[in-house]
């Protein structure tokens, strides 16, 4: 039987744009109310659409998924209602930003705004309108959850007690993990080569405008962007997205529909950009990317500069982190530090997360060593030179307090937060009116944990 705290280890269920994107025609039975919390209802379709969305995104749906989602829905409604009572701030701007992010995610998945609207049977504006209230409820529930658990702290004694409760035969096994930093330089092509590329791109623009060829055919032939060349160089973009190069964005949004830009330089290379369609801060664009080639001379200059930096680090005249912040062309190093991170933000990574060239380098390195400056290829085939720092390497092992204190501390903290949230729910439950559909209650014994105040209708 699931506990309330385990329900909140899982993510909040999706009752938003994802459900709208599934489209009404997929419903095969009449909708009905699965539950009520206060004056808020939970529809059977909400649960089914959430399940469908998990499957569509490639997630694994457990056998008791409907019960788990129903449990989460009840708790989420309680948190949302309490957030309203406590007047927790959730602005319309935050809701709209969340909606826009979700819509962009689905547009990327379906390939275009038109494809999403066709599947949903609705316009983007109708999808957002249908999802707006649900998104606001989610954000209120999340704000309330943060208020309950944000001040929870963990002590070393509690960490030790948490670890000692784990059965010895259940201790997880971890593969070898590494902490790896890097300082990267991306050599710049010579001015002559850049001017040559600009000349070629001006010629592309002329050919398209005089109808010698069309943008789609030319993008497929000459663009060096592997992510878009096969679809005519097309992207769906939003003016507020931070992942796009600012020069690319500002150029695209200055164009009129159908207009083609002169060559512009971004951090990736040179582009000619065509605005296909614009709707407020959203736009469909096409582009052709050309990357000026870097010669061995520029590679050699970068290697010599990195060799000097490496010597200063080894001599102790500058720290590795400081050197990375000062000299590295890797944008991530400027904000999150020079160490490679995994999906949860930890700096401990496994071999399978690294490129082949780095794996080969690390095989010859000892902990604490810095590699020689070494050429490599980065995003979109961009040539660079890097030095790599192997800070630590763990042996394959069972989790233990010596090697994994930080990880165990995080686990213990999450459990304490879950216990705090569970206690809050149990204390608040008597003050909320909760009703559950008889069929749902019969199929989901864990709903009885909410106590005698859970009624059927």
Which key terms come to mind for this protein?
457 residues; four-stranded mixed sheet; Triger factor/SurA peptide-binding fold; alpha+beta; disordered N terminus; four-stranded antiparallel sheet; 3 domains; Chitinase A, domain 3; flat; 17 helices
Brief summary of the model shown:
This protein has helices spanning 4-9, 17-22, 44-56, 65-85, 92-110, 113-120, 124-149, 156-165, 191-209, 215-222, 246-254, 296-315, 320-327, 331-335, 356-362, 405-428, 438-443; strands spanning 33-37, 40-43, 173-174, 178-185, 234-238, 264-265, 270-279, 282-290, 374-377, 383-393, 397-398, 434-436, 454-456. It is of the alpha+beta class and 457 residues long. It is flat, with a radius of gyration of 27 Å.
CATH topology of the largest domain: Triger factor/SurA peptide-binding fold
Q: Structural class per helix/strand content?
A: alpha+beta
User: What top-tier CATH class of the largest domain fits best?
Assistant: Mainly Alpha
The assigned CATH architecture of the largest domain is Orthogonal Bundle
Residue share in helix: 40-55%
Strand order of the largest sheet: 2-1-12-13
How many β-strand runs? 13
Rounded to the nearest angstrom, the distance between the terminal CA atoms is 23 Å
Unreliable stretches (pLDDT < 50, length at least 5) are: 1-29
Please outline the major beta sheet. 4 strands, mixed
């Amino acid at each position: 039987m699931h506990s309330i705290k385990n329900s909140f280890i899982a993510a909040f269920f999706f009752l938003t744009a994802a459900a709208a994107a599934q489209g009404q025609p997929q419903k095969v039975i009449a909708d009905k109310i699965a539950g009520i919390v206060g004056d808020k209802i939970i529809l059977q379709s909400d649960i089914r659409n959430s399940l469908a969305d998990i499957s569509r995104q490639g997630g694994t749906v457990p056998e008791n998924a409907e019960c788990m989602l129903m449990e989460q829905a009840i708790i989420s409604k309680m948190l949302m209602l309490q957030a309203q009572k406590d007047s927790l701030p959730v602005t319309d701007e935050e809701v709209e930003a969340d909606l826009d992010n979700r819509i962009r995610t689905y547009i990327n998945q379906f390939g275009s705004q038109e494809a999403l609207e066709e599947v949903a049977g609705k316009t983007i504006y109708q999808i957002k309108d249908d999802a707006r209230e649900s998104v606001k409820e989610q954000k209120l529930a999340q704000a309330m959850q943060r208020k309950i658990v944000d001040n929870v702290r963990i002590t070393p004694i509690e960490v030790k007690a948490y670890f000692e409760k784990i059965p010895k035969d259940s201790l997880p096994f971890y593969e070898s993990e590494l902490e790896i930093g890097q300082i990267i330089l991306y050599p710049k092509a010579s001015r002559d080569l850049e001017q040559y590329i600009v000349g070629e791109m001006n010629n592309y623009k002329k050919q398209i405008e005089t109808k010698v060829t069309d943008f789609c055919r030319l993008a497929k032939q000459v663009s060096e962007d592997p992510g878009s060349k096969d679809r005519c160089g097309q992207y769906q973009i939003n003016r507020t997205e931070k992942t796009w190069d600012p020069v690319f964005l500002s150029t695209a949004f200055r164009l009129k529909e159908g207009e083609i830009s002169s060559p512009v330089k971004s951090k990736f290379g040179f582009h000619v950009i065509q605005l296909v369609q614009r709707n407020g801060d959203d736009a469909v664009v096409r582009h052709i990317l050309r990357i000026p080639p870097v010669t061995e001379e520029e590679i050699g200059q970068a290697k010599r500069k990195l060799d000097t930096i490496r010597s200063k680090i080894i001599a102790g005249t500058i720290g590795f982190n400081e050197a990375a912040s000062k000299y590295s062309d890797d944008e991530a190093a400027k904000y999150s530090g020079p160490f490679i991170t995994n999906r949860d933000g930890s700096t401990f990574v496994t071999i399978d997360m690294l490129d082949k060239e780095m794996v080969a380098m690390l095989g010859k390195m000892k902990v604490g060593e810095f590699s020689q400056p070494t050429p490599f290829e980065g995003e979109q085939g961009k040539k660079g030179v890097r030095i790599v720092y192997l800070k630590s390497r763990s042996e394959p092992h069972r989790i233990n307090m010596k090697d994994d204190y930080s990880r165990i501390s995080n686990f213990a903290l999450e459990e304490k937060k879950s216990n705090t949230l569970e206690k809050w729910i149990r204390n608040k439950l008597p003050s909320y009116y909760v009703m559950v559909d008889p069929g749902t209650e019969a199929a989901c014994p864990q709903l009885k944990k909410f106590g005698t105040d859970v009624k059927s209708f």
